[in-house]
Amino acid sequence: MKEVKISIFGFGTVGRALAEIVAENSEVYGIKLKVVSITDRSGTLWGDFDLLEAKEVKEATGKISNIGDYEVYYLKPEEIIEEIRPDIFVDVSSWDDAARVYEFALKEGVSVVTSNKPPIAESYDKLLKASQEGNAGLFFEATVMAGTPIIGLLRENLLGEKIEEIKAVVNASTTFILTRMEQGKTFEEAFNEAKSLGVLEEDPSKDIDGIDAFYKAKILHWVSYGAPPEFEERVGIREVKDARNVRLVAQVSEGRISVKPIKLPENSPLLVEGVQNAAIIKTDNLGEVVLKGPGGGGRVTASGVFTDIIKAALRFPKAR
Ligand SMILES: NC(=O)C1=CN([C@@H]2O[C@H](COP(=O)(O)OP(=O)(O)OC[C@H]3O[C@@H](n4cnc5c(N)ncnc54)[C@H](O)[C@@H]3O)[C@@H](O)[C@H]2O)C=CC1
Ligand SMILES: N[C@@H](CC=O)C(=O)O
Ligand code: NA
Fold first, then answer.
1. Assigned domain for 282 exists
2. Has residue 258 been placed in a domain?
3. Are residues 139 and 249 in the same domain?
4. Ligand 2: which atom is nearest the Cα of residue 206?
5. What atom of ligand 1 comes closest to residue 201's alpha carbon?
6. For position 320, what pLDDT does the model report?
7. How does DSSP classify residue 81?
8. Which of 249, 261, 191 is nearest to 216 (CA)?
9. CB of 199 closer than 6 A to ligand 2?
């Protein structure tokens, strides 16, 4: 059975959920998935360790380096690629500047799977070139709508369509906060409740000020049009007073992205609740296609990462 070596970078809510899913499904489609390293801010665990033990140590102590019987290394991100030589580099961290490591990995023939938005939103074209140069895959399903498959839809199933417009609610945290405010909670009460769900960013202002949704809108623009937008607009939810039927809506059309709170009509498919996301994709032949599903949470996000790991393993030869 072909063994595929995976290095996980970042071991928070999503990383630990991914460890669970890989441990439950280590042999899929004739492939044996082997996590050979896990990195968090305290260091890199590298070797033949027990995945679930690593998850327990992280949850109990907050640091992967506290694991007893295994070697912990202090590697720069590029050294993970050079020294460990994984087949797939999986970024589930909140490190905004990870694009330089993705580019290095891709050029080395190492596929990249990520749930981390800024590197894709800000460096998509450069990374696509690097993936072609290194014959390696770049996969980022979980960056938008978590495991709900909008990226695969746009990158594969709608390739024959002209994307006329996308209107979407793609940030779970603000949807949760706005729907709790609709039910009479204050912003502060709703915000604190959202914290317990594991969907807020490490820096929650990214959610509240529309930055997370903006990155996602930019990724949708890249995938739909192969270029960055000229016009960009971003407004968060801090000034929302009457939350009834209000959602943070991302609007994407060729050359333009906008993220702002919008009061929606009663029957709008975008009037989602809780951590649900929804998107209305308008194309030349199909008219409107509606996609709705969970947009945040550990396993919901790790689901998209895991599917991308399988895609990468099936499509790309082992790293050189
Ligand atoms: N939680 C969710 O519902 C979703 C999260 N995402 C994205 O997935 C990524 C992970 O999300 P969560 O696990 O929820 O976040 P988290 O905050 O629980 O975990 C992020 C981890 O990355 C680590 N990290 C940050 N910078 C690092 C660096 N330079 N070196 C090593 N480790 C570093 C942090 O220490 C933390 O353990 C984020 O980029 C997030 O935007 C995407 C979709 C949904
Ligand atoms: N913080 C994000 C997590 C998923 O991308 C959100 O609230 O949607
Ligand atoms: Na997705």
1. yes
2. yes
3. no
4. 1
5. 41
6. 44
7. I
8. 249
9. yes
Sheet holding 287-294, edge to edge: 231-234, 256-263, 246-253, 163-169, 276-283, 287-294
Same domain membership, residue 178 and residue 42: no
* Mean pLDDT of each 10-residue bin along the chain, 320 residues long: 95 97 96 97 96 96 92 96 98 97 98 98 98 97 98 96 98 94 92 84 94 98 97 97 96 98 97 94 98 95 98 76
Whose tokens are 């891709």? That residue is: 106
Q: Is 12 annotated as a binding residue?
A: yes
Length in residues, the chain: 320
Ligand 1 centroid–CA 195 distance in Å is 14
Q: Per the structure, how many domains does the chain have?
A: 2
Ligand number nearest to the C-alpha of 148: 3
The pTM score is 0.96
Domain containing residue 175: 158-294
Judge contact between 133 and 106, C-beta under 8 A: yes
Any idea what the CATH number is for the domain that residue 36 is in?
A: 3.40.50.720
Catalytic residue among 58, 167, 216, 218: 216
Judge whether 162 counts as a catalytic residue: no
Q: Return the SS3 of 257.
A: strand
| Torsion angle defined by CA atoms of residues 302, 303, 304 and 310, in that order, rounded to the nearest 10 degrees | 100
Q: Is residue 138 part of a domain?
A: yes
At 198 the pLDDT is 73
Residue nearest to atom 1 of ligand 1 (CA): 199
Q: How is the chain split among helix, strand and coil, in percent rounded to 5?
A: 40, 25, 35
Question: Residue 70 Cα, ligand 3 centroid: separation in angstroms?
Answer: 34
10 within domain boundaries: yes
Q: Report ipTM (2 d.p.).
A: 0.98
DSSP for 236-250, written as a single string: -STT----TTEEEEE
Residue 318: what pLDDT?
Answer: 59
Q: Is 43 annotated as a binding residue?
A: no
pLDDT at 1: 85
